[in-house]
Write a structure and sequence with these properties.
about 210 residues; alpha/beta; Rossmann fold; Arc Repressor Mutant, subunit A; 2 domains; 5-stranded parallel sheet; 9 helices; about 15% strand; elongated
């Protein structure tokens, strides 16, 4: 496995040195100097903080504007309502400091480098509750699913995935064939797909239907 280049940021220099010492010994990590910029750019930026303070936000925003915006946030405490701001600053993975064994920290960095999101279970539970509320109160009454498809689009794509042609879909749903074609075309255009077959494949691959 290729080593992952990581740069550590912390307001407290002693804390930064402590985290860096743990990472420096790991074969999965190449630790970059905090003072060095230019030729060596990190794959992941590790930001260490007690809270999502103004200083931490500024650091994340500065990283976000660079060429390597992927950040892991090692934090003491964060409120659920602060998560959108952290995400907007490029945070892909988050780990509580009191849970951060060297193994957990490295696995979180590896996950972030591979494009995965990592979040503590309590925060994820709160987020899922909020998403459920959003769906119940706002999306569902307007015929929109969490996948970004409307209810009718999702129904049509599911039937198409089950092998129904345009006429069969129209009969099952009580739509005109023209409506079915129009809705399928809308999905193709919105997601930049090639055709109906590509739309069905995309919907299945992304878990939309």
């Amino acid at each position: 496995m290729a080593r992952i280049a990581v740069r550590v940021y912390a307001d407290d220099s002693i804390l930064e040195a402590g985290v860096a010492s743990h990472l420096r010994a790991r074969p999965e990590i190449t630790l970059l100097s905090g003072s060095c910029r230019g030729a060596d750019e990190p794959a992941v930026n590790l930001v260490v903080s007690e809270t999502l303070s103004e200083s931490t936000v500024r650091t994340l925003q500065r990283i976000r504007s660079a060429t390597t915006p992927v950040s892991v946030l090692l934090i003491g405490h964060i409120e659920v309502n602060e998560l959108p701001q952290a995400a907007a600053c490029g945070v892909r993975a988050l780990l509580y400091r009191h849970f951060a064994t060297p193994e957990r920290l490295v696995s979180t960095i590896v996950a972030a480098a591979n494009g995965e999101g990592v979040m503590p279970g309590d925060l994820l539970s709160h987020l899922l509750t909020q998403v459920g509320h959003l769906h119940h109160e706002f999306l569902s009454p307007n015929g929109i699913t969490l996948s970004g498809l409307t209810t009718r689009e999702a129904q049509i794509l599911k039937l198409a995935a089950d092998g129904y042609d345009t006429a069969g879909i129209a009969r099952r749903l009580g739509f005109s064939e023209r409506t079915v074609k129009s809705l399928l075309h809308g999905v193709v255009v919105r997601y930049g797909l090639r055709n109906r077959t590509h739309a069905v494949a995309h919907a299945i691959r992304e878990g939309m239907v």
